Amino acid sequence: MSEDADKQREAAYLELLGRHGRIAPAVARLYTRAGEDAADLEQEIRLQWWRSLTGFSGRARASTWMYQVALHTALTFLRRRQRRLRADPLEHAGNMADPAPHAGGREDQRRTALHGALARLAPGERALAYLWLEELSHEEIATVSGMNANAVGVRLHRIRQRLKELLTAGKEGK
Amino acid sequence: MNPQRDELQELWRTENAAAGDAAAASGALPRGEASGRAQEDRLRRRIRLDGRLKISAVIFLGAALPLFAGRFSAAAWGVFAFALLAIALGVFQLAWSNRWRMGKEARPLSLSLAADLELWRRRRLALAILLGATPALAWQVYQLAYLAMNPGRSARLLNLLFLVAGGPVLWMLASWRQWARLGAWLLQIEGALAEFDEQVAARCERARRQAGRRTGLIAALFLLLLLAGILLFWMGR
């Protein structure tokens, strides 16, 4: 590859990262514990974006492509650790990366509870819930996941109910 | 923005506004591309390392040549044949893994997971056989070298048994172990895919139960082989 092509690729990557880079830490937080695991996955997602950039034709929206690559990377990342987490979901929920672990306000408690509830969902459901939380339309979620839009609507309805149940149960438990 | 936003979406949005700023601020090219932590990277590194290990038989071959000079028995020829086979397989492993494409394609999740599953299913048998061959080849070269250096012991039943059955059994078990390890990862991909495709879900559940039984069986057979080897060695003394 020529030097010019390298520079173009680098510039395109940095531009995409500037616009949608927040996807990497958000997805890493969804699928890992706090600390090193999350940093590893975040780094891996960025690496996959970089490697896959040459194959990205631009026909899809850049954000759609970045969600696809990030979630694919997360769903197939370090499965041994995920097996361990599956064995003890409560521990996972309690240890998930908290964006503001030192803050004790009501808002922070709600965020921690939301992350805890997300951690109880199956990995695929978590991906759909994440895309919904990111305010993607059913059609966009269908494009990222490969499901049809009707099936997405049905699944999301169930997932939202489950999330609300988990959050209510969490509140009552306190 | 969306006026119908759910309270959970609102909560998520406020949290991610700060995270977004931090991500944009840390924008940089990924470093250490060769040390990716995805399973594909780990497998590639393992097959490359294993390939180099096989090629290192050339060192053994170089050292053995003067020792066997003047007494080229069948066992000595066997040492050369198995060492050359190891080197050839090692070269093949390096060339093969070099051709693996490591990026992800712009495809929906269900399709990209299905493509991953298909790709690694196709590679699974060759990977298991190649990785499983390393301990078996090492054993075979060691056994033959021992017999070439001690021609008088070739007639002993124990040595013949170790030579004829040891390598193949070790190869079979080590390959089976690799097969099972790869299967565990494929099962996990299938598990993720099952959440987007209900037909895959039922198949996945069956495969998960089979994998549990298989892992137990492999461990038991390895233990049995070890005990049989110790017993035979003890009886042959």
Estimated radius of gyration of chain B: 25 Å
Beginning-to-end CA distance, first to last residue of chain A:
59 Å
Domain count of chain A: the total is 1
Low-confidence stretches of chain A: 85-102
- Overall morphology of chain B: elongated
Strands of chain B, count: 0
What summary fits the major beta sheet of chain B?
A: none
* Structural class by sheet pairing and helices of chain A: mainly alpha
Q: What's the end-to-end separation of chain B, in Å?
A: 83 Å
Can you tell me about this structure?
The complex is a heterodimer of chains A (174) and B (237). Chain A has 174 residues and is mainly α. Chain A has one domain (3-172). Chain A contains 10 helices and no strands. Chain A has helices at residues 3-20, 23-31, 36-52, 62-75, 79-87, 89-95, 106-119, 123-133, 138-145, 149-173. The longest helix of chain A is centred in the C-terminal third of the chain and has 25 residues, at 149-173. Chain A is globular, with a radius of gyration of 17 Å. Chain B has 237 residues and is mostly helical. Chain B is 81% helix and 0% strand. Chain B has 7 helices and no strands. Chain B has helices spanning 7-25, 39-55, 57-68, 74-98, 109-149, 157-194, 198-236. Chain B is elongated, with a radius of gyration of 25 Å. The mean pLDDT of chain B is 83. Chains A and B meet through helix 1, helix 2, helix 3, helix 4 and helix 5 of A and helix 1, helix 5 and helix 6 of B.
Summarize the structure.
The complex is a heterodimer of chains A (174) and B (237). In chain A, helix 6 packs antiparallel against helix 7 and helix 8 (123-133) crosses helix 10.
Characteristic terms for this protein:
heterodimer; A: 174 residues; mainly alpha; 0% strand; globular; B: 237 residues
